[in-house]
Design goal:
Elements (H helix, E strand, L loop, with lengths): L1 H4 L6 H9 L6 H10 L3 H7 L9 H10 L12 H20 L3 H9 L12
Helix pairs in contact: 3-4, 4-5
Length: 121
C-alpha cells in the first residue's frame, strides 16, 4: 500500500509505483476503505491476510496518512459532537495545567530533586 498510494514525491520512480504496484491481497481492505473511509472495523474484516500492516489500525493509519480518498463521509451526531468537545476540553485543561521546559529543568536540577523510585522499570 505504501508504494501504491504514496504521493509525497512525484518522481518517475513514485509515478511508476503508483501505476504498477500490486496490492498483494490488500485489495478488499483498500476497497472497503475507499468506500467507507477510516473505519477500523470494516477494514479489519478485509485485511486479516494483509502482509502490509499487522493490524487493522495500522492499515487504516497508512491509508489515512497517505490521504487515500474515500467516498462516504461521517456526519457526527449531536451526541458525538458533544463527546468530542468534552475530549478536547479535557486535553486543553491538562495541557494548560502543565509546566514549561524552564520550570521542569529548574525542578530536576535543584538540590532536593529525587527521581521517583522505579521510574525506569
Amino acid at each position: 500500500m505504501h508504494y501504491k498510494f504514496n504521493t509525497r514525491s512525484d518522481t518517475p520512480f513514485w509515478q511508476a509505483c503508483r501505476e504498477t504496484t500490486d496490492l498483494a491481497g490488500c485489495e478488499e481492505a483498500v476497497e472497503q476503505y475507499q468506500e467507507n473511509g477510516p473505519n477500523q472495523h470494516l477494514v479489519a474484516a478485509r485485511s486479516s491476510t494483509s502482509a502490509t500492516s499487522s493490524t487493522p489500525k495500522g492499515t487504516s493509519s497508512m491509508l489515512v496518512g497517505m490521504k487515500v480518498p474515500y467516498r462516504k463521509r461521517h456526519v457526527p451526531s449531536p451526541k458525538e459532537q458533544s463527546a468530542w468537545a468534552a475530549v478536547k476540553r479535557a486535553v486543553a485543561n491538562k495541557t494548560n495545567a502543565g509546566i514549561g521546559v524552564a520550570e521542569t529543568l529548574a525542578a530536576i536540577r535543584s538540590p532536593g530533586w529525587q527521581w521517583p523510585k522505579g521510574i525506569y522499570n
